[in-house]
Amino acid sequence: MAGATVSPTPLLKDELDIVIPTIRNLDFLEMWRPFFQPYHLIIVQDGDPSKVIKVPEGFDYELHNRNDINRILGPKASCISFKDSACRCFGYMVSKKKYIYTIDDDCFVAKNPSGKDINALEQHIKNLLTPSTPFFFNTLYDPYREGADFVRGYPFSLREGAPTAVSHGLWLNIPDYDAPTQLVKPLERNTRYERSFAYKNLCFLFTELFIPKPLFVRYVDAVLTIPKGTLFPMCGMNLAFNRELIGPAMYFGLMGDGQPIGRYDDMWAGWCMKVICDHLGFGVKTGLPYIWHSKASNPFVNLKKEYKGIYWQEELIPFFQSVILPKDCTTVQKCYVEISKQVKAKLGKVDEYFNKLADAMVTWIEAWDEQNPSEGVVANVPAK
């Protein structure tokens, strides 16, 4: 691939799995071959299990469809969503590696402002292998990046940082919008280019004619830690995490077929994960790396999936902002089961769905522990 730069020895080659949910042939892997081929892929096939998914030659992979999920998990397979990208979390459960990178099949290799291909996986690994700073914000963003450091006034006692549990990457081209925003901004794109004077005049003309105008946002070369106590909308299309630290919390919920909601799977996982990271003293980074998001989903289909979530999120955010985990919750599993209890107690009155979801959260943890009996990292819960 022109412009691609690959490390001579791939980082974490034997310690990382790439998880991909899909319903189609994985031709997109050809673009990622220089970066992904050294790693093991876990492909989670959604939808009709009799459909044959083609994977380009030369990749080391395992492929699981719904029949495999039912066979491996038995009755506990009920916690894995069907006909929704939330099925990807099955790959997290059956992986035996320390780290996970997950990517959607409509995400391609992006280019940085100088025109070079971005090795997104390598940047995620760098994010995960360096500490985070959730307890005190550094105004130069990530102080562990080459060429950066802590600014004047940053407490020396906090400069060791916290273990990084999650690296949340961003995207160029098609933005990750909800359906209402897609409908009112159908031409908006993220690109690495600044707006030119001529283009500004063109946008002005569009505005005068009441035609929706595209907005181009510059590539931002930055990584920052999301502060403790701050929630964020996590997108699952370009995401990496330390499975040993936070894996059991990365449950993408009950979504899709048979459920009243979709497209909130990664959001749910992100809110649960962030509350647990804050409690256990782990960090979450966002920013680099970028991927190229190539396909905009249908906003009318999305609205049908999202409409209850758009309404419910006004209850969900205050709920997660108020969650308090007791000090004896020293593992991710204990934290997650405690959150499930609070979901049932406080959100069950919003809709019966949340009682079902709370039960599925417990089932997920039980299935996780069955598949990973030797895991369960005990953290030193920091003083509040």
TrEMBL record:
Function: Probable UDP-L-arabinose mutase involved in the biosynthesis of cell wall non-cellulosic polysaccharides.
Catalytic activity annotation: UDP-beta-L-arabinofuranose = UDP-beta-L-arabinopyranose
Pfam families found in the cross-reference section: RGP
RNA-binding listed as a keyword: no
Originating species: Juglans regia (English walnut)
Keyword Protein biosynthesis annotated: no
GO process annotations (BP): cell wall organization; plant-type cell wall organization or biogenesis; UDP-L-arabinose metabolic process
Keyword annotations from UniProtKB, A to Z: Cell wall biogenesis/degradation, Glycoprotein, Golgi apparatus, Isomerase
Record-given protein name: UDP-arabinopyranose mutase
Annotated InterPro entries: Nucleotide-diphossugar_trans (IPR029044), RGP (IPR004901), RGP_fam (IPR037595)
